[in-house]
Amino acid sequence: MKEHLKNIEKIDRQQFQSDLISWFEEEQRDLPWRKDQDPYKVWVSEIMLQQTRVDTVIPYFNNFIEQFPTIEALSVADEEKVLKAWEGLGYYSRVRNLQAAVREVYGSYGGVVPNTRKEISQLKGVGPYTAGAILSIAYGVPEHAVDGNVMRVMSRILSIWADIAKASNRKIFEEAVTSLISHENPSYFNQALMELGALVCTPTSPSCLLCPVREHCHAFHEGNERELPIKTKNKKQRQVQLASIILADEHGRVLIHKRPNKGLLANLWEFPSVEINLSYISQKDQLNDSLEKEYGIQFDQMEMLGGIEHVFSHLIWNINVYKGVLQGPVEEKSDLKLVTLEELSEFAFPVSHQKMIKLFQLNS
Asked: In this structure, how many other beta carbons lie within 10 angstroms of the beta carbon of residue 197?
């Protein structure tokens, strides 16, 4: 029998559940998605919280629910408006998948979020963690909801020395939570594990003396809580050098174009950009060649505004930002527009291009 399985058998499950849930009832943070157990709101919050800090999510969640308060409202909303509400949160595929899944719920389930793992897991963008979170928090179903916080907590409590960065090891933690979860209050049990990982059982400096379940924790008793969890580092991010330009016409309108509907930052608007070949001709010539080839556009009076670094999980954009003046007319299309500076606020831009707008306004 593996060591962590023996450790599960040693835990007083009822006392563990009681200690954990009692702590959560007293110490839980006042978060807007905890006001009720609406499955739709739980769903939205869980999607937003992927890869994003709680403090960052709160205003976005409030604004999103104000604009799209129900499944019906989100399902019929224009994608441009939805992306605008998500602007700045990043990982935009999350919200596109959310809207696609919500439309399926509205069309196939009468607007009611499914309450079984099999059905809910078939919705676009709903993985094992999100499915378990919605089922347990909103419906009170005793299903595991294992994210990074939960894996860290369980690795310490049960002394699990499996690499949490490996997807193949997730099943170990799912089985561990399933064996310990409260069937009377799975909602608070799962939320408490997440909250414990966020507030007490933190990655580098766990506050063991404040932990409500330290008496059950094998890592605490063995003195190796700082060695767990085991987590291999991600591959190094790729550096990409870009040049972007804000081009204005004689009326002061600026040129924007829409990114493709697939891939990184799909369907967001941006200023013309090109990946720079440092061994090639000047950045101006590379921009000119790219714009003329793609849109038949030329420009002049190019002036550098500054540099921006934008970090993704897998790459880093180093962007040289320029401004310039359009030469000749522009044939506008569905993915190419000339807009006033005031109209820019109606379009959803990546964070990097929002920074460019500020640079441009400072230098205009």
From this structure: 21
